[in-house]
Amino acid sequence: MNRIKQSITLLGSTGSIGVNTLDVIARHSDRYKVFALTANKNIDLLEQQCKQWQPVYAVMADEKNAQILEQRLHRAGLSVSVLSGQSGLVDVACDAATDCVVAAIVGAAGLVPTLAAAKAAKRILLANKESLVMSGQLFMDTVQSNQAQLLPVDSEHNAIFQCLPDRCNDGVLDKYNKGVKRLLLTASGGPFRTLSLDKLHSVTPEQAIAHPNWEMGRKISVDSATMMNKGLELIEAHWLFGVALENIEVVIHPQSIIHSMVSYNDGSVLAQLGNPDMRTPIANALAWPERIESGVEPLDIFTVAQLDFEHPDLTRFPCLALCFAAIKTGGSASIVLNAANEVAVDAFLNGQIRFTDIATVVDETLSRASISTEVDTLALILDADKKARDIARATVSSRGS
Predict the structure, then answer these.
(1) CA nearest 179: which of 50, 74, 270, 75?
(2) Which of 198, 263, 288, 348 sits a CA distance of 20 to 30 A from 180?
């Protein structure tokens, strides 16, 4: 019996999630085929991926880079159609030939094509948490009204997904309020969990991106070091699972073996455990409701031997405190928070500000921005994002002058 292959569009194929997704797909060539691959700036890797996977489309963020890629692929004798920009991302995400869209673009840039995929009723594997941080209600309403399917790829949210009750229908939109009391989001604490507070100001980008457990991109690694990533995940979990924010708790778990937990009102706590490898949640989401081999080594609990848990220190991690504050404020606050953080992290990675200035830039941007209660359209969301970035850039410039 020949299996009909699922056609995959991978938004952000050259990043960590993208590379790991292709690794899983390579193990199951009888189940999946690649329809489109997209990248921001990494022409060399996208070229290699196109030669290996021979997708129908490739997309580069920049038109000039797209032209370079097109010339290279043409010289290699490949008939891959090369598109560029946001319109190219939207086109491949919505194409009728796409069965599944893996949303792995980092940051706000992933919102528009991921939302377009929801409007096109696609099966969406969500690794772009900013889509929900920026447009939570709008995004979930779009998924529901168009009968799209939304499956979480972030390790924490996928762990929660696996620990929740069985669903009657497809996707995470079937709310699980069957005795769920709390969601427990685990966090490693990053590389500076025990570093003396007076040394944080001298942290270098190289130190910040050296995560103790996970291999991730530079921006997400810095977010993990500040714990901004966990705050964004808190917002994402609220929208994904329909659980009130006061019923979601962050737990520091240095070993990164328990990827998250769900507490029930009968006293049970279910946890999903595994080695820290993104191929596990990717494989789970790709094949759900089936399970397929991911390439991840089985967990040896005797080697692990010990699991530790701590409350987060909001003095050490002011970005996490800012996330809690933004959530309470509501409206466009989470949009402003995310935009300011993206600007601040980029400035830190480029040597413009110190590590400890990231939280300061976000805090000052939140204080200076006009927080709107009405952000229920894409245009309003993008406008709030742009204005916040302008304020954040001015804040970075003032700190560097």
Answers:
(1) 270
(2) 288
